[in-house]
Structure formats: structure tokens, C-alpha cells
Amino acid sequence: MDIDKPLVRSELKTPRAAAIAGIVFSILLMVSMWLLRLSIPTDPLDLGPWLLASARRITLALNFIPFAGIAFMWFLGVLRDRLGAREDQFFATVFLGSGLMFLGMLFVAASATGALIRAYAAAPAELFNPSTFAFARSFAYDVMHIYAFKMAAVFMMTTSTLIMRTRVAPVWIPLLGFGCAAVLIIGSGYFDWLLFVFPAWVLLLSGRVLVENLRRPCTPA
């Protein structure tokens, strides 16, 4: 066996247009959150007719979440490939962990919301028990607004730190990331529209990476 032979073939390198995964994630997540924002009242204890009137729109929004999650996984891979050997192990661990925790809690919140819709369709009279409904709505709301997007803020801070250290993007992008992360940490549990800050920042970063990748000359295999 030739020990000098590389373990990874050059053909397996990240595609030049792989940064489009972050763009897909951002668009899908923003569309999903917008549909949910239009369909679900802000008050977690609102027992109005929205469960029946907006069931189809909510289901459509929830169906976008798994595809957004798949795209986010590719986005994480694109960032790690972009950082390369310059990646700091400490910040890279927090970066990857916070990203995966955000994704997991996003799925949990979407599953809880979907279960609420299905439970109402199966037994609408029983679901309107105030304590049961309050628990289900508060659980889904808190997981999404307080926990998932707090992890998104941590992801933004660590990603911005890595970008600052490695200089893989203009300095104004990580500075904007720090500001957006601070806004999310403080206000994600109070204002729904603040949640759009995270996918918008990912869209901006992914667009920049994609443009730079396409401008870079191809290297022969």
C-alpha cells in the first residue's frame, strides 16, 4: 500500500456552487416562518379559530422545515470547507454544536406544532381543554423562540469569530453577525419578526461565499 497516496480523492472536494445550500435554507426558512406568522397568533394562549382556518397553510409551512434543515446541514459543510485548516478547534466545536442544536430544536418545535394541528383535527372538542392547549402551544413557542433561536445567535457569534480570525469574508459580515446575534439573544422571545434576522444573515453570507467561489479559477484535478 502506498502511504503517500492521498486518502481523499480530488473529485470529492466541495462543489464550487455548494454555497447555494445556505441560500436555499434561508429562503425556505423565511417562507416557512412567514406563513406561520400569518397563520398563528402571537399569544400562545389564543384559542381562536386559527387551528381550523389556517391548518393547510401551517401544514405547508411545516413541510418546508425538513428541506430547510437538509440545506442547513450542507451549509455547515460549506462553511467548514471554507475555513479549512485555519479552523480553530475551540470555536469550531461551539460553531458545529450550536448549529446542530438549533436544527434539532427547530425540528422539535415544528413537530410539536404539527402534532397540535393533527390533534385538533382528530378531536377538536377535547383539545380546547385550556391546560392541555396551553401546554402544547407554550412548548412549541418556547422551543422555537427562546431555545432554538438563542442557539442560532450562538452560531452567528462563533461563525463571525471564525470569519474574523480567518479572513475568509469581508469584516463587515462578521460585525453584522455580532449585532444580529445580540438582537436575537435579547429579543427572540418577545418579537416574532426578529427571528428573520438569522436566515437573512445566512443568506447574505452564503451569497458572498457563492460569488467568491464562482470567481475563483478552477483548479485541475
Please describe what this structure looks like.
The chain has 221 residues and is an all-alpha fold. The protein is built from 8 helices and no strands. The protein has one domain (18-215). The chain has helices at 20-39, 50-53, 55-83, 89-122, 124-127, 130-166, 172-187, 197-215. The radius of gyration is 20 Å and the shape is elongated.
Tally of distinct domains: 1
Shape: elongated
Category by helix and strand content:
mainly alpha
Q: What is the overall pLDDT average? A: 80
Helix content: over 70%
Q: Tally the beta strands.
A: 0
What is the helix/strand order?
Answer: HHHHHHHH
**First CA to last CA: what distance?**
22 Å
Q: Approximately what portion of the residues adopt beta-strand conformation?
A: under 5%
**Major sheet characteristics:** none
Number of helices: 8
Low-confidence stretches: 3-13
Radius of gyration: 20 Å
List keywords for this structure.
mainly alpha; 74% helix; elongated; disordered N terminus; 221 residues
Provide a compact summary of the structure:
This protein has about 220 residues and is mostly helical. Helix content is about 75%, strand content about 0%. The radius of gyration is 20 Å and the shape is elongated.
